[in-house]
């Protein structure tokens, strides 16, 4: 929690030091994730520094320093037995840091922060001259972190969330329904839609070629390549009519959101459904904000706004796309209304349905 605005300087200094420690711990989480240290601790721990290094093909001296840091930060437990120090990962931490199927899986967040940190010189330049830093610039750490952190929610929660909205579920359940997933990334959302609605055909589109390649591989591995296709295109390539289209945590990144929504409106039947899932930020800004606001503004200054501004022209939306902003984009794209769907407790997200004119 930030100090009060009128707090003395030493309280603000303590706040800065605490923030710096949190940043260092985040990057240490990234090290443990990418080097396989957390996974080794979860699967074969407790470990000494030597055994952890051997199990993961890493350097013992670095492993020892990282383990001691993790113990100091409360991430691992340490025990001494006859002068031999062993380190263990508690079960809850193991789930959050290594179980990619768990809704608690959070390690990819550290990977995203690391991706942004490596681009700090480019971010500084962009902040000075108004340019940007694209997802392509951020690279695989950002690309796959985004895919991995959302995957368990798509795999586990998307189907029941949509089934709980009868009118939407009926549209998606139409025999031979065509569903579009715009900015589909690695394809986990499209595959979840295909599993939930086995009579539907799903088309995922994305402008990021590595993501589309991975999505096609994921579809083949899931045995769904016959019903799910992935196109390296943008929304303007959609050839309707579609029964439904989804934009899942992506609209705020798009340089031209109105044009994308116009293309979607033209491709989806008037009796179909257009659904946008985006961050569940507050209706109005407030300072200090809650944890969702703090997290989303963090993503915005480091990732989403620079990505959006890497293209010209750009709406420069940023991660914190408040409901009124989305409603404005929808109106400009020719939609008649926007309603919030009764889907709650879906990570940090809110679901909107955009309605065609009647």
UniProtKB/TrEMBL annotation:
What positions belong to coiled-coil segments? none
Q: Per UniProt, which keywords does this protein have?
A: Methyltransferase, Transferase
Start and end residues of each Methyltransferase domain: 179-272
State the Gene Ontology terms under molecular function. methyltransferase activity
Q: Has keyword Metal-binding?
A: no
Q: Name one GO biological process term.
A: methylation
Occurrences of domain S-adenosylmethionine-dependent methyltransferase Rv2258c-like winged HTH (ranges): 25-98
PANTHER family (alphabetical): METHYLTRANSFERASE DOMAIN-CONTAINING PROTEIN, METHYLTRANSFERASE TYPE 11
UniProt name for this protein = Methyltransferase domain-containing protein
Protein's organism: Demequina litoralis
């Amino acid at each position: 929690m930030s100090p009060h605005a009128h707090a003395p300087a030493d309280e603000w200094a303590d706040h800065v030091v605490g923030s710096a420690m949190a940043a260092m711990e985040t990057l240490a989480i990234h090290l443990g994730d990418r080097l396989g240290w957390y996974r080794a601790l979860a699967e074969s721990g407790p470990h000494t520094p030597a055994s952890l290094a051997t199990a993961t093909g890493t350097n013992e001296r670095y492993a020892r320093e990282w383990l001691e840091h993790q113990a100091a930060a409360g991430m691992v437990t340490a025990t001494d037995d006859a002068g031999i120090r062993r380190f263990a990962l508690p079960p809850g931490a193991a789930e959050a840091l290594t179980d990619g199927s768990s809704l608690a899986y959070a390690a990819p967040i550290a990977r995203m922060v690391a991706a942004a940190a490596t681009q700090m010189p480019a971010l500084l330049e962009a902040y000075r001259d108004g340019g940007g830093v694209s997802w392509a610039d951020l690279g695989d750490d950002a690309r796959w972190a985004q895919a991995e952190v959302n995957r368990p929610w798509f795999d586990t929660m998307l189907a029941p969330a949509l089934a709980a909205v009868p009118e939407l579920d009926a549209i998606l359940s139409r025999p031979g329904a065509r569903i579009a997933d715009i900015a589909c990334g690695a394809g986990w959302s499209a595959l979840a839609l295909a599993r939930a609605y086995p009579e539907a055909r799903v088309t995922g589109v994305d402008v990021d070629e590595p993501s589309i390649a991975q999505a096609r591989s994921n579809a083949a591995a899931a045995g769904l390549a016959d019903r799910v296709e992935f196109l390296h295109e943008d929304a303007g390539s959609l050839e309707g009519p579609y029964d439904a289209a989804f934009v899942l945590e992506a609209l705020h990144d798009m340089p031209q959101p109105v044009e994308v929504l116009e293309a979607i409106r033209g491709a989806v039947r008037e009796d179909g459904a257009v659904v946008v899932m985006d961050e569940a930020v507050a209706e109005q800004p407030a300072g200090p904000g809650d944890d969702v606001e703090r997290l989303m503004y963090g993503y915005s200054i480091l990732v989403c706004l620079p990505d959006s501004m890497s293209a010209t022209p750009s709406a420069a939306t940023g991660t914190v796309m408040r409901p009124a902003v989305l409603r404005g984009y929808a109106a400009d794209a020719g939609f008649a209304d926007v309603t919030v769907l009764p889907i709650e407790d879906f990570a940090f997200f809110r679901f909107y349905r955009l309605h065609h004119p009647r």
